[in-house]
Specification:
The structure is a single chain. With about 575 residues, this protein is α/β, with parallel strands linked by helices. The protein folds into three domains: about 1-50 and about 55-135 and about 250-410, 3-Layer(aba) Sandwich (Rossmann fold), CATH 3.40.50; about 150-230, no CATH class; about 425-585, Rossmann fold (3-Layer(aba) Sandwich). The protein is about 40% helix and about 20% strand. The chain has 20 helices and 19 strands. The strands form three sheets. It has an eleven-stranded mixed beta sheet. A five-stranded mixed beta sheet has the order 15-16-17-18-19, sandwiched between helices. It has a three-stranded antiparallel beta sheet with strand order 12-14-13. Helix 4 (about 150-165) packs antiparallel against helix 5 and helix 4 packs antiparallel against helix 9. The longest helix is centred in the middle third of the chain and has 19 residues, at about 265-280. The N and C termini lie far apart (about 85 Å).
Amino acid sequence: MFATITKIIDRAARLAKKNNGMDAHAFSLRIGNANAVLLPHRSVSYSSNGRSMRMNEFYSFRWKKIKKDIFVDPSHEPNSHMLITGMSGFGKSTLFKSMLLDINAHNMPAIIFDAHNEHAAIVRHLNGKVYDAEYSGINILELDGASVAERISELTRLFKSVYSLGYIQATKLSSCLWYTYRKMGARAKTDRTLSKAPTIKDLVAELNIFITNAKTVAEKNTLHHLRDRISLLNTNAFGSESLGIRDLQSGIHLFSLASIRSAESQLIYIGELLSRLYVQMKANPKESGIRCYVMIDEAQFLMDESSGSNAIIGRLIEEGRKYGFGVVIVSHAASTLNRQIVANASTFITFYAREPNEASYSSKVLSGGDNGRADAIRSRLRTLRQNEAMMVSGSMRDPMIVSTPRYDSLPRVGGLPMIDEAKALAATKHPIHESDISKMLSPEQIDSLVSEKKLDRFTIKDNTGEETFYMRPNVSLSIEHEAYVTKISKLLTENHISNAIVDNRNGPDIVAYLAGKKIAIEYETGKKALPSTIKMLEVRRNEYSKIIVVVNDTAFKFYDDNVSINNVILLQASKIADLPGILITA
């Protein structure tokens, strides 16, 4: 049996090394390095009845050490679907990135749903396209080849599932959808084309008419509840048709769902996109090999077994093999997923699981229902370290322990490591200097994030030189203000003046400590009402020996003409290099 396992692994490894990407229908995904495989072990015990010895033979399961590269070869699996599960922080997303690199190396198309915008950086490195779901719209009322009746049925089912609608609400919604389509020119429910597709805005308007014409208070309340839910979808994400589904079947495409804050809206977005993908999939020739991967990371929207996207993914998994689609799902907990998804994933990989029910469920899946194997797996599962996982597949049915890739083992692109874009963005809560962010992201990545309005960029030009800062957008704090505060603090420190940035609304921007004095330093962009600024300075005067206000150059003359308060010194922002000298003489 051990020889058979080795043969299967070696065959996959040889195929991976031989295949250089010329054949898009035969390739392998590298999982890592196998450390051990769980195999039956023959044991013998002896018992005596006082006269003779009796030999008893029985089998247990033991982990046998091995050293092999592990690859999953979809062409030798019953299907190409994979499920990766385990506790956060143990290597799921890193393995996901490694697989994506393999998929791209073989020119295999992939469609990625990313809940936290964690993989946008690597997709851009691979010249893929990144879509912000908030701005890459899907008009969910567009017929897209379906009949009016089919679209009404699909939407009613989706809304009913996501919003847990009752029978009466679902019936009212179906009627309202039909009236909405009729106003856009539909003559019969069998129509498959319209001169203009309705939008969520049109549906909400029709619901308002239904509310006005409601005959009872109960009916009106039902419709109010329905309208309030659906009104949340009246956004760019659902208001326009800017995505071409056919275009998604070549290259790497990532959909970032982070900007869609509502879990229900995320469900509807992914459910609708997958539904249309499923329709396109059925146009593919059958049994033609793997043609495209759908990859879903941090699949929180799949956790509820009743969710609308669950049904769509169930269909993709059940029928995907026939039409050339593979599905890779990464989730915190396999036990909460629809059993249909788990049952039809040929490859199952689990990292460390602390929660007892999840550990027990994963052990049963890995063991194939064998209690002896399950006990051995459950015991070892609790000891898995970071970047260490257990796996089985259709061709490798004995559970294996695998060391999966780490971030530092992923290849560098353009001289930069494959840093999570989400982690780089997390470092920009406060302004970060260009030299620091350039250590994490390439210039192309930075420019893309700025154009997508995920980063603000601000350049300071003054008598110390020119410096550029980056910061995540913040509705209550401007990057200009925060960048100047950061630069002022750094300038004082370089001149050996003790100081501290005050990160609250009640204190000044910076407090400098010099010769036993406390000096308040403020930066003003000139956008705040002057009376408010003067009131703030009057309060500061009672608490600090001096107040220095650094003012944006365009607003400086106005401040100089209108601010005349004892112990308050005004300084143009372009002359910031003079600040240490002013402090020393203040």
